[in-house]
Design goal:
0% strand; mainly alpha
């Protein structure tokens, strides 16, 4: 067990498992977020139809309804982007076509999967904030 090859192999496998855990684990909450946001796009359909009719709707109500639809659509698109990018990165890690020398799993993600790592984190965070902004309307 004290063989250096065993230690480096164990470390490499732990790094790969951490990366797979990150990219695989963020897809589930992003999927729930996408489903909720997609459902929320159609919730105020009658209110959106009243914007174009002759019913009495204040300017503030119009802006709130438009903001609600815009933010729910943005949350849906960003969470869908998170799912697709994380799935692509997860598959790339499983293929193993990258430089496997890094000090930590975080450094490996930053050096070998920088675009995917940053895009998944940013898209998911902004989608969460959009969803919270939509819910607290």
């Amino acid at each position: 067990m004290d063989h250096p090859l065993f230690d480096s192999l164990t470390f490499y496998l732990m790094c790969i498992l951490c990366i797979l855990g990150f990219f695989g684990g963020i897809r589930t909450p992003a999927t729930f977020l996408a489903g909720s946001s997609l459902a929320a796009i159609f919730t105020l359909k009658n209110a959106a139809n009243s914007l174009s009719s002759n019913e009495e709707v204040t300017k503030l109500e119009r802006r709130v309804i438009k903001f609600y639809h815009l933010v729910s659509l943005l949350a849906f698109v960003l969470s869908l982007n998170t799912i697709i990018t994380a799935t692509g990165a997860h598959t790339a890690v499983l293929h193993g076509r990258f430089n496997q020398m890094a000090e930590t799993a975080y450094m490996m993600m930053k050096t070998e999967f920088e675009y995917e790592f940053v895009m998944v984190r940013w898209s998911f965070l902004v989608a969460i904030f959009c969803f919270l902004g939509m819910v607290t309307r």
